[in-house]
Amino acid sequence: MALLQAGIRCSKKRVASRMKIMDIRAKAKGKFRATTDSGHQHPVFSNILNRDFNATTMDQKWVSDITYVHTKQGWLYLAVVIDLYSRSIIGWSMSKRIDKDLVCNALLMALFRRKFPKGVVVHSDRGSQYCSKKYRKILSLNGLIGSMSRKGNCWDNAPCESFFHTLKVELIQNRGYETRAEAKQEIFSYIESYYNKKRMHSAIDYRTPYEMECEQKTRIQLSMKSG
Predict the structure, then answer these.
(1) Stated pTM of the model
(2) Structure confidence at residue 189 (pLDDT)
(3) Distance CA 135, CA 138 (A)
(4) Which residues are 75's β-sheet partners?
(5) Which residues, other chains included, contact 215 with Cβ-Cβ below 8 Å and sequence gap of 6+?
(6) Would you tell me which of 6, 19, 60, 202 could form a disulfide with 55, CB atoms 3.0–4.6 Å apart?
(7) How many other CB atoms sit within 10 Å of the CB of residue 166?
(8) What confidence tens digit (pLDDT) does each residue in 28-50 have?
């Protein structure tokens, strides 16, 4: 980070040499496991987001997706909702079942935290969980705008894919959880104590989600006072 800000460049050879001296290795993402079941007959939303991951304010565009975590008790599934303005994880849910309740609970958390904003574009893939009547009803009752990726196109939801990659590289990979409860606790701490508050993101000019949102709230307060 400091080297990047100072404009200093390092060749791959030099980085490899330094890593060898320091006896460190790069972490790579593990094998992919599909979590999207798009082979259903439920109605789907059009791709309103259309890979436009920029947002000018909070609660303008949210993205959601599901990933999985291996434990010795079996798979633990994680659904998240991300605000594209700050890259903050504003809703999340974990369960041993990959069902509609998993994604609905994550969305409901986001709604409660954000005090039920209207007109937010909420983007996801075409998985059966996101096409369920329960999920679509939550969108409709709360004035949210559904959007879905094209079939089999993970790049249409790249911010979620990026978060899951980061989560697995920085926390989960090679961890070896004994129980789902153990995994839940560590993921909770990672999201709430580190990712949202301390981790800098290149997509928001190397600021944290917390800093981005505090800056916007301050601007809104100043605007209201001056108005």
Answers:
(1) 0.82
(2) 98
(3) 5
(4) 70
(5) 207
(6) 60
(7) 15
(8) 444 444 455 555 567 899 999 99
**CA–CA gap between residue 166 and residue 209 (Å, rounded):** 15
Give the span between the Cα atoms of 175 and 226, in whole angstroms.
51
CA distances from 1 to 15, 201, 225 (A): 14, 11, 37
Q: How does DSSP classify residue 88?
A: E
Residues 132 and 100: beta-carbon distance below 8 Å: yes
Which tens digit of pLDDT belongs to each residue from 107-118? 999 999 999 999
- Strand 145-148 vs strand 61-71: parallel, antiparallel, or unpaired? unpaired
Q: Residue type at 142?
A: N
In this prediction, residues 9-36 reach a mean pLDDT of 52
Q: What is the 3-state secondary structure (H, E, C) of 96-131?
A: CCCCHHHHHHHHHHHHHHCCCCCCCEEEECCCCCCC
Structure tokens at 108: 């409901």
- Judged by DSSP in three states, 126 sits in coil
Chain centroid to Cα 140, Å, comes to: 22
CA distance 55 to 182: 35
For residues 38 and 173, what is the distance between their CA atoms, to the nearest angstrom? 27
Answer for the pair 78, 92: CB distance below 8 angstroms, yes or no.
yes
pLDDT score, position 29:
45
